[in-house]
Amino acid sequence: MILGLGMDLCDMRRIERSIQRFGDRFLERVFTEQERARAERRSGQARIGAYAKRWAAKEACSKALGTGFSNGVFHSTMGVRNLPSGQPTLALTGGAAARLAALTPPDMVARLFLTMTDDTPYALAQVIIEALPA
């Protein structure tokens, strides 16, 4: 059963301008330590693309949760992680995790699917939240 679907298209130039203007303050407020470490291993447009894809993933997830950025759902409560296979997924904490729990029917577990891509100057992410029997 599909519980939520969200998609976001992000202009990489906007993320680049935010990084230039606000620096670490922006990066630490929006991205997890793990996300920052992954992006900082890259340089140039690949670095900006890594941040932009993760921004788009968080935006898409907030839409899939049905709240946008309200009710305790913030950029900092969603983190993009990679499974051992390399497949990206989302780890939710705080208000985002609480919203997911409230959205998930009893006796079911939620699974989040994430896909991300970028082609300068845009980054795109899509999130699907599925409920499966426990």
Provide the CATH architecture: Alpha-Beta Complex
Roughly what percent helix? 40-55%
Termini separation: 13 Å
Described by strand count, sense and barrel closure, the largest sheet is: 3 strands, antiparallel
How many distinct folded domains?
1
CA-based shape: globular
CATH superfamily: 4'-phosphopantetheinyl transferase domain
Strand order, largest beta sheet: 1-5-4
Helix count, DSSP H or I runs of 4 or more residues: 5
Number of strands: 5
CATH topology: Ribosomal Protein L22, Chain A
The structural class is alpha+beta
Point out poorly predicted stretches. Answer: none
Order of helices and strands: EHHHHEEHEE
Would you state the CATH class?
Answer: Alpha Beta
Question: What is the average of the pLDDT values?
Answer: 97
User: Over all CA atoms, what is the radius of gyration?
Assistant: 15 Å
Q: Approximately how much beta-strand content do the residues carry?
A: 25-35%
Catalytic activity: apo-[ACP] + CoA = holo-[ACP] + adenosine 3',5'-bisphosphate + H(+)
Keywords: Cytoplasm, Fatty acid biosynthesis, Fatty acid metabolism, Lipid biosynthesis, Lipid metabolism, Magnesium, Metal-binding, Transferase
Function: Transfers the 4'-phosphopantetheine moiety from coenzyme A to a Ser of acyl-carrier-protein.
Cofactor: Mg(2+)
